[in-house]
Amino acid sequence: MVQTSELRGPPLPDTMPPLTDQFRRNVQLYPDTLALVCTHQPSDLYGVGVSSRSCETGKQGLRWTYRELDLGIRRFADGLQRRGIGEGSLMVMFVTNSAEYVIATWAAYRIGCLHVPLSPRSLAHAREVTHMVRTAVEACDPVSVVVVAGKREWTAQVAELMQGQGFDCLKIMEEGEGAAVGDEADGWTPFAEVMQGTTTTMAQTDVVEDFSHAAPVESSIFFTSGTTSLPKGCFVQASAFPTTVARSWRASRQPMRPGDRVAIVLPNNHAFGYMFLMAAFVNAATIVFPGSGFVPEALIETIRREQCSHTALVPTMLHALSGVALAPKQKLHSLRRVVLAGAPPTEEVLRICLGHLGADGVENFYGMTEGIVVSTDAAESVDNVVNGRDVSIGLPLPGARVKICAKGSRVPVAMEAVGEVHFSGPSLVKGYIGNRDDDKFYTGEDGRRWFCTGDKAVVGKDGQLYLVGRYNDTIIRGGENIEPSAIEAVLGQTSEFHMLEPQIVRAPDNVAGEVPVAVIRQEIGEETARQLKDTVRAKMGALYVPAGVISVLSLGLEDYPRTLAGKVQKSKLTELVEAYWTARRSRTRNRVHSRAMLEMRLKQAWARASGLNDATMIDVNVSLAGFADVRLLDSIKEHLWTDMTSNVSLAGWIAADTIAEEVDLIEDAARSERTEESDSDQASIDSVPNSYVIEALLAAIAYEKGDHIDPATRLIDLGVDSITSIALLNQVRQETGVSLPSSLFFTPHTISEIIDRLQSTPNPADILDFESASEERPRECFSALIQGTPKPGVPSLFMTPPGSGYAFSYEPLPKFANDLAVYALGSPFLMTKSDASWTVEEAAALYVKTIRKLQPEGPYLLGGWSMGAILAYEEAYQLRQQGQTVMGILNLDMPLPRPDPHVLEPTVKLLEIVGFYPAIRRAGKPDMEIPSYRRQHSLASVRAKLKYAPRPMHTASDDATPVPIFVIWAGHGDPDRLPSVLVEAEEILQKFGLETQERTSQEWLQTPRESMGPGGWAEMVGEENVECRVIDHAHHDTLMDPEVVECTAHLMQVAIDKWLSSRS
């Protein structure tokens, strides 16, 4: 039976007393326990606690016990009632973290006021704050209204706001901001005046209150963060939310006990901040305010001085705290628990809590204003909550339930399937005020009230809940779903990028539909942007690499657009990025076209002037003095100035020493006139043969790879994979009607050389082989870091490509342990002419050259699949000849080759008949035929293999150190039968002709392998140095079938671990 994705928290006691009853009980049980510390407020505030035992030696600021805080609450509640405020009234607060906020909140609950805390920052957002106040008024139709403002400078705005609602209200201003008793300027009553008691019950004496009477209804309105629309109001059940959390904390691994000190810097208008504050009071803990808001240094100093055991933070606060230097002796060793919420934390954030701050535990709390309560409890190690790249959000709290359903469904999906989080529990609100988005709430068949969160999540094998992302944030790139949160989590694991607080949003793209773009908090250089992209490529794959990196400054902002609660507004950020991206792409297209075309035209002009036959020989960065007689140089320049430009000064043009400087002058002049491409420029560009094809090609490259494309860049170095290349060339074909070969993006030629080739060809459709422009043998190979981080002293793994020569054959490999760096090598012969041939020794020498550039000294880890394994062996042999150490060779399913002069010479058609070219599998898409250039390379590989005679390793050098080979056999397929199968293919070809679609029997590819031994490799390194494992699948599944790839990678990891451990 399939197990569904449903999680239940432990049972919750039936009784959930009102918060006021729980607070009063704490006053009776712990009257002298410190209740409140406000480091930024005077110790004698309102005359409460001046002569009590709460004053601790050497400690500054306000310090009230539970008895004294209760006295202050009763005084304020009495003062409100004497002014006509009571049950059925509305209390709106614009107050920061202070004693006044605590007093007013508890007083509101005691006398039955509806409590509505709003951020003072909201006063700068008239539309939002007016909406929130109006929502509260319409929701409760109050008999009277009281508003509390924290600072004098806010009073005018608050008064105007409340007056706009059409009723009078009691206006109270905090003490300490210039307001004193008797100072009622502009109708504002000082807080101190309301605190003045008039009866003997207000004396500082022990009071035993009667709990038998029915307490007024305790209710608050909190507003959602409003990341996509106006904030939605929620009636929060005052008792259920914090009581559920408080009870879970009392029973946890790092319990919260009476008298524990809890540092609070979260905004009090945020549901998370409110929950943390009230849950601490329910547990009779000591609330410590380090100030009115969050200041990193003040928080750290307060935790250390007050010996706080708990605090709650959002990830952005951790970013700031990580910048505060802490020596080992300065670690916050009193901290038993840091609670994280507000946004999904990354692994790096968790490490800051446990490592940088020195906390004993970190809790990942997944909650929403709507009353969602899911938590990991206090984890004492990052490994307890991190699974690969995913950070767990834990399990439902007592009384709560979670189920994962397909979008639009209410039926739970199977375990490990992604779906939407549905929540039910006693803390859940009944709905949004005014029935906004009411379809998110429903009553299930079980009779329980449920809420659809809009969050994507999955229940893992460990039974824990893992967030995947938001449905509204998902990016669809070429039909593949990308979750921005996954990319953000990967970047968050690197401290350099973590500090940039990267946000991933979508941007429009002509080829892929949508692409991810990284937005960061500050300007960075091109090298850092490239490293950011490389990090994503290495850890996640090419699909997830951001198409661009943009700073918020580029968007005209100083910070991300945020909600009043401080959350990044992804919807607004996406709108800004889409507008910026569209405009920038247009500018990029013009700029790339202009520069490449100008360089090409100037090179041709100088070639004619200097008598050169080949304009490609000219380097745009070399002095022009080398291309003409010095006596004629200025004359030639003046002639070109007349032909090439009309808006550059002649003096400036004569002074230019290189073609690159000439292009700069033209572009600068164009910018100064605020036109990037004039009609005359366009006309001159259009006069170039095939300019429309060149423009379309450059546009496709610019859209895919972004700005700063140097015409001297080799196309193979653009890192475009085969599927993306087809999409880009399809775009060129749709715009121009010309089909360029897919091999284009895998040539060693530069963009400038391709442009020259297109310009010199009358009909671009006739271009079938770009490589024919060069007769030179390749001098190096392509390499790509596909995962991990190279580290000094730690060998990287170098994987040689299979017969196709395609480096990215190894991209499906999952991440190896310890962030092992894995380089995929691409064949240097991938783009050679179809009739070209090469030897294993020749290819291996080029691979070794590249390997030693990337890692100059051994020991080396080598590997390869199929033909790649043969090449890896020859690489090891040549490295040993060079005096280097080889730690081991990973051989993925290839026996020792044995040359046979009688074997039939293969051709592409014969290999096709044999079944050598299986289609490329693509998840959710039709299979794709292997491109012709890879077929040609496979043919050359087979020919090279049939002629290769490997040499025993001991003949490479006098070094007797063994070179182990770890062979991973595919359990099905017999490559030794290839010679006989080629004969069968030749018979089919002779019988049916070149157009035949007939194939040989594919049995040889599926038949069980008879021998699982060393496969001949013992002859090369000794039987004791060959270890074999088997995967019960066919050869082509080794790196193509996702399930089989997992098995392959696991066995590779076994060998790597063994070799690395033997080294240590």
Automatic annotation (TrEMBL):
Protein name: Acetyl-CoA synthetase-like protein
Lineage: Eukaryota, Fungi, Dikarya, Ascomycota, Pezizomycotina
SMART domains: PKS_PP
Any GO molecular function: acid-thiol ligase activity
Residues of the Carrier domain: 688-762
PROSITE patterns to which the protein is assigned, alphabetical: AMP_BINDING, CARRIER, PHOSPHOPANTETHEINE
GO biological process terms, semicolon-separated: small molecule metabolic process
Pfam families to which the protein is assigned, alphabetical: AMP-binding, PP-binding, Thioesterase
Keywords: Phosphopantetheine, Phosphoprotein
Signal peptide residue numbers: none
Organism encoding this protein: Aspergillus homomorphus (strain CBS 101889)
